[in-house]
Fold each of these.
Amino acid sequence: MIAIDRLAKSFGRKREVHAVREVSFVARDGEITGLLGPNGAGKTTLLRMLATLIVPDAGTARIGDLDVVRDRYAVRERIGVLSDARGLYPRLTARENIRYYGELHGLPGPALSARVDALIDTLGLAPLADRRAQGFSQGERMKVAIARALVHDPATILLDEPTNGLDIMSTRALREQLRSLRSAGKCLLFSSHVMQEVAALCDRIVILGAGRVVADGTAQALIAQSGAATLEDAFVTLLGSGEGLAA
Amino acid sequence: MSASPLWRVAAVLRKEVRDALRDRRTLLVSLLTAAAAGPIFLVLIFNLIARQADRARELHLPVVGVHHAPALAAFLERNQAILIPAPPDYEAKVRAGHLDVVLVVDERFAADVAEGKQGTVRLVSDRSRDRAQASIRQAENLLRAYNRQWGTQRLLLRGVAPSVGNPLDVEDVDLATPQQSGALILFLVAFYGLLASVMGGMAAALDTTAGERERQSLEPLLMTPARPGELVVGKWLAVVLFNALVVVVTLAGFYLTLAFAPLPAVGAPFLFGAREFGRFLFVLAPMILLMPAVLLYVGSRGRTFKEAQANVSVLMFVVSMVPAIQLFLQQREPDWLVLVPVSGQYMLLKLALRGEAVPLAQLALSFAVPALLAAAALAGVARLVGREASFASR
């Protein structure tokens, strides 16, 4: 479970860029929570704070019973992150790329091999597994990055715009993968600026606008709250404008 | 599931070594250059010395107007100089480097001598040519010897002891041990060894810092439980391994060339045997540990790979200038110099090559400053890496 309470972060010399002003919400286990917002709404900054990469200016965030600032290294053992920087090592094979992260997570040899084999199997990476990452396509790199993020079987999974640059087939495969993780009881937090993406996949939707939570609930609840006819209209109504969102 | 820091350092080290070994082209280029430096360079310099020795043994001296001084000609020929008539455009030929030195006897030579005046001869040469130095020196020495012999004979004829005209008796006592005579070669061997220890880890260090950032693989790495310090130490150890490899290959090139290559015998007996090989490695060890740390620091400061590369070339230039300056200063180095990285190592390498004992205290001092600097540089890299995330976010 992820519990975020009045989290805030500003950048700039005088802290004049308020990326996240005040964000509170809860993402539950066994659910996919969608973080929807136009470009610049603060999604990436929020995910970076949850991933312990940057320290919030104010507020708290907990992953399970761990605080993202105080227990940052323990948090890193429990989360799997697919950030928007998802570079692989081009001279290592897909398998070696995945193994490296497993080793850093302290998985012992035989268990790691079994885990890597299982991930290669479920993600359909078998034909690529022992090829160098050098010439991989976007979708192939994406799959390896996901396997790398999941190698230690984390209970909480953060994904920053995971479908960026993927073709339809890869996107569908990714959705399948995320649904099966949900059935396994994982807590998934998924950010996107693509409405269809969020609508198709997420159990609950948190709409971010200019660093604040604009709305938070199931798709039906959001439609009811906004008084609009469709989910798309609901987004536009709630955000004040549809600018920066993609249909 | 949590692992020990040592385990993670080992994981980083393993990955970095494998990654760098896969970069075949870079690896091959740096190892081949290292291996080729010794042989190419030693063969060139030995042949140069051999050719100079040949020239000195057999002086071909073009002459003009030598019939004005038949006694001089006879003296020169008695001393194994081969006199040949100089071409009319000898000045141009000397200037162009086709002739080393030409002896011109003034046409009034015989008349001047008969009148009791000094006879004039000219040595035409271009002293800016290193190649010609041996011939010039030999021609000068022969003329000086003839001058002395002639003067002595005149004094004896007048019943004066030769020592009256030569009150100073200069005896040449050369204290150079056999190893010292190849001094220039040895200094250059030291220089190349030092250069290898400075540059050996460059490619690997840049790839694992600026390269890692540019490939966008650093940020995901920072979301694993590996602490910045563990990542940095693992990367550093990997670069140290490659740096050591380049140094060993470079020194092996020198060692094997001197031991087995058919080099001309030039009477420059010096040693670069297994003992010197070991001493070199020991003296260079602080650099092999320090330079990777410095390179990692410079590599992580650059915002892009290109910027890091530019900064590293400046560093390389400065570092390689240090021994060159020391060579040109030609002064006895002060003792405190052993504390200065690069300078200190260069100084100790020269001691090792001269066959002198390297004092243990000096050796210990030469480790101290590099060790401190390496620790500081690594702490700096860890700080930079730890801050990376907040850099990347805006």
Note: Residues 175-181 of chain B have pLDDT under 50 and may be disordered.
Amino acid sequence: MIGHGLGGYFVRRLLGSAIMLLLVMSAVFFADRQIGDPARMVLGVAATEEDVRELRERMGLEDPLWVQYRRFVLGMVQGDLGDTFRYGISKPFAHGGMPESRKTLPIAAERLPATFVLGGVTIVFAILVALPLGIYAAMRPRTAGDRTVNVLSLAGVSIVEYWFALILILVFAVQLDWLPTSGYGTPAHVILPALALSLRPIGRITQIARSSMLDELAKPHITAARGRGVPITRIASIHALKNAAIPIVTTIGDETVNVVTGVIIIETVFGWPGIGALTVDALAIRDVPLIEATIFLLVLIVLGINLVIDLAYMALNPRVRLR
Amino acid sequence: MAASSSVSRPGTTGEERQARVTARDLAAALARDWVVLLAVVFLVVLVAAAVLAHLLMPYDPLLPNIFAGRRPPFSETRGLDGGVQLHLLGTDALGRDMLTRLVYGARASLSVGVVAVAVSAVIGTTLGLFAGFLGGRVDTVVMRTVDAFQAVPSLLVALFVLFIIGGGLVNMVVIFALVRWVVYARLARGITLSYRESSYVEAARSIGATDLRIIFRHILPNMFSPLLVLATLEVALLILAEAGLSFLGFGLKPPEPSWGLMIARGREYLREAWWMITFPGLAVFLTTLSLNLFANWLRTITDPVQRWRWLI
Amino acid sequence: MAGRNSRHALRAAVLGVLALAAGPAYALGGGGELVIVANQEPQSMQAQVTYKEVNGVGLRNVIEQLTRLDPRTNEVKPMLATRWEQVEPRVWHFELRDGVTFHDGTPFDAEAAAVSINWLWNPENNYSVREMMGPQITAEAVDAATVAVITAEPDPLLPRRIYLGGVTSAKQILEDPASHDVHPIGTGPYVFEEWKQGQYWTATANPDWWGNTAEDPYGEIFFDRLRIVWRPEPIVRAAMVESGEAQVAMFLTKEECGRFDAKDGIKCIVKGSDTFLQFRLDYHGAAPLLADPRFRKAIFTSIDWEGIRLNLMGLGEALQGQMLPSVATGFHDGIRQYPYDPAGARAIVDELKAGGADIPSVHVSTRLGSTPRNGEMVEAMGAMLTSVGIPNTVAVEEPGVFNPRAVSKPTPERAYAWLHVQANPLMDYGATFGAHFSCGGIVSVFCDPDFDARVAEAASMTGKERHEALRALVKEGHDRYVVAPVGLLQRAYGVPEGFAWEFGPDHRIVAVNMRMN
């Protein structure tokens, strides 16, 4: 209908993602109307009922719900999710419109680079640690080494991340004084938060790498290669890894999505100026437009990751294209 | 444990055939793997302690004794009734016995995990089974919904919904059940599809078996092991999720003793009263680790490809 | 190091040239950068947020006020105003300091001061500072160096109250009001540089600060730069001072404070504040029992206030059954903290039940992060209420949930108590009553027109007469079981060894009062 082949698939996927985003944001929009009067929240302390009513009118909260919803969707299409509450509503509002500094989407988007740095370092680090570990374990199943890797990788997915993060700070920043406690700016700052976030992906990727390698190594053509005397490391890297790649890529994708959720807590602990910390701030003061903007971007990132994973599938397995 | 499960066992003989893994086989395999054995023993003890908390624990998990707060492990305090109390794992900020609260906390944390998993597994498996078995429009609708749910990270959804409706045990279980059913639906559908066309289902159908009979006799039994593995992993996931949400203030509500809440509260005392965060942290760690180890083992043992390496 | 020294030399040379060209200039302190780690990011940089230090930590280094409070005596002292006088019951004249300029170069004169004051207290702006306003405040210039501040009703506390209001550039307010939210332009010893949202804000020492040359400055520039960062996790804040990344970590707990004192290289500074922790209970509502003094007595005597203060609050000074300490105008020395009498409370509850009363469930809430250990405190209170047979729920609520409820009038259907901090820099019961006990007060616990009339009468009095009038009202409030003061907050800070800092009960984080020895 829309097109065939790779391009058509890509367009269909993009369209699907856009619909998904619209659905999620619509749900968020209607849910956010359930948590009380934003005008009252903004005005707070000394406001009278008249003030609140006036502000409600200015904010368009007195319009019928469908009018508000239409405005919300139209704004979203234009990349405008409203104005933040954090500065309070003061005169500039009465002067007609808000300056750009109040728009929530730019405020939230400004936090993306920090989150990308942290998430990227975490995932790359996790892959670099987990793949060798998994392959190592798979090549000597049921040995002490395999069992150790197995238990350690499961331990990695079992730990409460922020507890581990606090311990990391106490050990590496306070006791040893090797790394900064928290904050943002230099490469040294990313180490502790990335370490705290990477335990889970390391554990999961190791597990999957191990089991899928194990499956591959048990296949007849590998056993045959072994029989011909091809060294085991070459078998591992060339034959088996290529075939084991699909489940591993799936897991990397899933874990990248999990990291996007994980940053919410870890960024707060480390004072990392990413979108996760902003989400917590926005939730705490119930800054509804800002919450909507952060969720919008988080969902957008996740949809983007899923798209990349799908493309990676196709590169790895051309048969998927025929779907 | 799993009394029996029916899976095909390839590779042992030339032809595929039905074989039954008996409880005896499982126990024997378990006995050979002491790490998993330890994990299973830990889980059994934990569940027993959680169920019997009110019989096992001599102290009140909720009643504060604020003049006896932050006592280290093995401290003795004078209780409100005047008697001497021994605190093996110390006391929390309000002077309540850590061990007592941990055991009662197991109740809350495990019930969040187990109840949410049970509800979501039933919903998800049912939907997945029907989607796979009936195919067509039902399949499309269910799988589109699954795709939609999976496009958004479930913990983010849970966080947002709990923010709107507030935390607490019941809300948390409901939300977890609502966001996690999709993983079971996906699994159940996949298994149903692979068996729907299999020769022995065809055979059953040819001798006049009804759809329901085919589902209950031939498809569901084959789903048991993978579902059990998945459910075990999910319990671990939800226990961790509870801890994370408690950190953000959207978890269980005080005074309910839950591990997540104890860790979240204890983090302020990390330097001066390490036991207040360390023991609940360890409880979560050991429980999720045990669940993961068990699930991992169960998967290997019931996986037709890998099982022969372990079982025989 | 060499680079730094040569930069210093260069700056000294530049300043020297400037000094020749433009009269006296000030050689900066040479104390390097001061890093303060706060518990939360400010929501804005508006002049108004300076009224509460926690809302905009460190902002008083950039923005100054007409008056200030002396750190030692807590008396009102000159800042941007040098003298003031009540020329009419409703009109005060403030004589302004000469030769002060805003950081944008515009002069600080009476016109500018009037614009700034009117902006701050303008009902249309609706800034939260208005909770401390009392009668409506407006201002107008009398002559170039005198500004008149007019109050809707006579307000003898005005010079003290005006200390809450930050003065910022009139040019900015008139020409670019939006930037007022994010870019403070004051007259202070530090010039705002940038606010990197999510990370920090910075300021640099102001060589043209009036205090560099004035005879009565309130401090001396020692640090060259100021950097304010924030970390919600107390452990991380403390760790930053231990690792040398920050010089001041806000709000340690009692135990952390002890640990800092015991460790080499760091120490803890702890001091009583003007902020008290209070428990207040709605007075009116659909549950008629809540208005019954017997039931209220049962609630107030079922909680072990002293036990909570000593064991959970940790850093708290005792308050004698009233909100303010003994220095306050209206302090009543004849009353004591509500006694802990669970048996008596239970007897009352049983008696009420026997009389057919339905005991309502009380919701006790507190705000996430408002003060250390508040979650533990409400949990203890809940358990104590339960043990005398009063059903309850407790909650630690995020600001977005707590604030709207805490700042709105009790609705008839709620049976609600809060544990919250409240600052009263004015140290006068007149202001406290206005907010918490009068019909007009937005957070008022009860409405009693007769009580209001007597508060209004007392508020216009001064001196001993005022003290006596307020004192009687304090006693009456106490007997109504409205507010239980848990304790006067002591705030503790982690700093390096050798760090000197002078501050008053208002705990202003003012860098010119800090130095590193």
Note: Chain A has 14 helices and no strands.
